[in-house]
Design a protein that fits this description.
Structural class: alpha+beta
Oligomer: single chain
CATH superfamily: Transcriptional Coactivator Pc4, Chain A
Order of helices and strands: EEEEH
Number of helices: 1
Strand order of the largest sheet: 1-2-3-4
Largest sheet: 4 strands, antiparallel
Number of domains: 1
Helix content: 10-25%
Number of strands: 4
CATH topology: Transcriptional Co-activator pc4, Chain A
Distance between the termini: 41 Å
Radius of gyration: 14 Å
CATH architecture: Roll
CATH class: Mainly Beta
Strand content: over 45%
């Protein structure tokens, strides 16, 4: 579990879920995390297992993957 988390961006996925892009730290190392949060019975959002946590050194590769996905979706009929 992350020791520290700073949410950089979030958006609603649907009525009960949101996606959060965060910077986290664990055992003294920084990571970036993109994760689905669900609304629990108490009304608070909780992290799900649906997501990805990567080292900052992979941010350019992740950005390239998103760019390629966008291009591929735009090419689809």
């Amino acid at each position: 579990m992350a020791e520290d988390q700073k949410v950089i961006y979030s958006f609603q996925k649907n009525a009960l879920e949101e996606v959060r892009a965060s910077i986290t730290s664990f055992r003294g190392k920084k990571y970036f995390d993109v994760r689905v949060y669900y609304k629990a019975d108490d009304g608070e959002y909780k992290p799900s297992k649906k997501g990805i946590t990567l080292a900052p050194s992979l941010i350019n590769d992740f950005e390239e993957a998103i760019k390629k996905l966008k291009e591929a979706l735009e090419e689809e009929p």
